[in-house]
Amino acid sequence: MSASAAPAPRRHRRIATEEAFSLPEVARALGQVAAGPSRSSDMPLVRRIYGQAAGTYYSGFLAPLLDITEARLRDMDEHGVDMQVLSLTAPGVQMFDADTATELASLANDRLAEIIARHPTRFAGLATFAPQSPKRAVREMERAVRDLKLNGFIVNSHTNDEYLDDPKYWPILECAEALDRCIYIHPRGPSAGLAGPLMDYGLFAAQWAYGVEVSTHAVRLIVSGVFDRFPNLKICIGHMGEGVPFWLWRIDFMNARAQTTGVPRLKLRPSEYFRRNFHITTSGQESHLALDYCIRLLGPERVLWAIDYPYQPTGPAVAFMDSAPLSPADKALVYHRNAERLFHIAPAD
Ligand code: 1WB
Ligand code: MN
Asked: Which residues contact 59 (CB under 8 A, 6 or more apart)?
């Protein structure tokens, strides 16, 4: 075949995997939280996005969070984003009382299923649940996968300052494992015990505190032994692994020592659980050096592309992955194949 007759190389399908949305009912409920007395570390952000404390760039996020089919689809088309995997934005339903949270989680999941039914090639979605009531959470998780066909789960890290290693949440982990749907642990403001020094200098959200919060959550899951109890549980974390990949060697070394002091005995080394049970996404962490390190450490099957729309701009996230020094096969994994496998999305080819 002559060179001129060769088909133009097709670009990779682009599936973005940590893409935020909201709905008016949840935004309204967060507006009420914003007007209330909560001392949660999420309050500065909730007041700015949903409350009256407008005037920073945060107040601009509400409109794109609520919009699915106008500016969002235009932005996707402009940048060749084939699909967004949508999730209810942080803090999700986790600041509400158990009844409100359970009700709004169901509503959000119904809404998500409707969006996907209308645009099945453009959107997939992660189901929300309310850990405040683990029993009802499990029922909603089952409904979300069996009836609504949603693609996995999202949880915004701690709930009332508690983490998923707490035995009260094990039914949630057991359910996710049985359904073979991953739980994406997305950041929210840090738990009360962590928050103090993270609240100054604008560190309270994505600049630093979110990573401290989710990395702590991930490491707690590993060293508590929940992956010996639920060996097929799949966890996904964003932001190039929230710093955990960089720490694995030291966690292994120090956990071996800690195991002589009465902490849970693990069947595997911590890094082995991270490699076996975790996937990471590139959301909002557009460094080729960090990407290269994570791919070499974890393998290209464990890293998924994400934008973090609307908190991060789409163009640079696409340019970052287009220009990443990866083989075409590895780039296909990161851009779409891993997402298709992990989130049960039908392959396009
Ligand atoms: C920011 C990022 C704010 C995320 C958020 O509010 C969320 C931020 C809920 O850039 O400050 C996010 O999802 O990464
Ligand atoms: Mn995000």
From this structure: 48, 49
Looking at the predicted structure, is the pLDDT value of residue 1 above 50?
no
**Mean of the pLDDT values across residues 220-245?**
98
CA 200/CA 151 separation, integer angstroms: 37
Based on DSSP, count helices (H) and strands (E) in the chain, helices before strands. Answer: 16, 8
pTM over 0.90: yes
Dist. CA 311 → ligand 1 center (Å): 6
> Known catalytic residue: 75?
no
Q: How far is the CA of 344 from the centre of ligand 2 (A)?
A: 21
Residue with tokens 């939280």: 33
Residue 245 near residue 297 (C-beta atoms within 8 A):
yes
Q: Which protein residues touch ligand 1 with a CB less than 6 Å away?
A: 20, 45, 89-90, 205-206, 284, 308, 311
109-119 pLDDT, tens digit per residue, is 999 999 999 99
* Residue 59's pLDDT band (cuts 50, 70, 90): confident
